[in-house]
DNA sequence: TGTGAAAATGTATCGTT
DNA sequence: AACGATACATTTTCACA
């Protein structure tokens, strides 16, 4: 599959600037990338339309809002259920913040976040209740060294 | 360790609203949570000061900017090096977007993103060059079902 | 696609409760 | 902590290049 990059070097700079601070004014960003306010606005609008920018957002520190526990849960689907169905079901489990289908011994890898370690048990029961899922293995996060780093485009 | 939640129910609603759309106006958010524009502004300012909101940002679809490959790399530190030193070194590897210290067979779990699968080799060489790191195991992501979901506070 | 300028909207500040 | 009012800044639109 050929990589389809939907952005040029100026878009990359705009994305990097807004990734660091989503509220930098278009005038300020424009000054950095050598474009007018209106041109930056137009590019941002188009990147939103094309899905390059999914949305404007905020980065929240999970610990400050009571989400103190993280685990990665590897999931096995031996039941022959469609990955799509399982994915849809897992999307409904609010503790599952991220889901990837993976190669290897397991089929899916979920990033789970809860208030407390003891809540993992309930989440695993919810996951195992989904038809097709036969087994899970959890890797408990002791400490998150870093995450949610601002996107840096145009580097190594 | 006791959970220290730095936010009340109104803050949670503000965080949820801004997580969905970081550019919703404070007036609009205020109407939803039953507060004036100025009060929402004040609360957001305080949450930024306390580090609840790390920053305003954008969510970018990695595929549209040429980051087509994701892997989770489990890392073993048998060399007795301090986790802190290794973490600092891994922070310099730009492909490493996320790093957690974990319980189990491995000591660290990194989320790695590159343009192409073949780039993983170079990243692994960079990682293995760090003193203390003796072994890695990579889990290749075939497809990201979902990630970067807007934070939903005050649910199950 | 980009520009500058005007109109529309939103943010930040302040005196007050 | 919150409010309304106001001053200030930014976004958005538009005619034109």
TrEMBL record, chains A, B:
PROSITE patterns: HTH_ASNC_1 (PS00519), HTH_ASNC_2 (PS50956)
Keywords of the record: DNA-binding, Transcription, Transcription regulation
Record-linked InterPro entries: AsnC-type_HTH_dom, Dimeric_a/b-barrel, Tscrpt_reg_AsnC-like, Tscrpt_reg_AsnC/Lrp_C, Tscrpt_reg_HTH_AsnC-type_CS, WH-like_DNA-bd_sf, WH_DNA-bd_sf
Signal sequence segment: none
SMART domains: HTH_ASNC
SUPFAM superfamilies from the UniProt entry: Dimeric alpha+beta barrel, Winged helix' DNA-binding domain
Domain HTH asnC-type as annotated: residue spans: 8-68
Name listed for the protein in its UniProt record: Lrp/AsnC family leucine-responsive transcriptional regulator
Source species of the chain: Rhodoferax saidenbachensis
Taxonomic placement: Bacteria, Pseudomonadati, Pseudomonadota, Betaproteobacteria, Burkholderiales
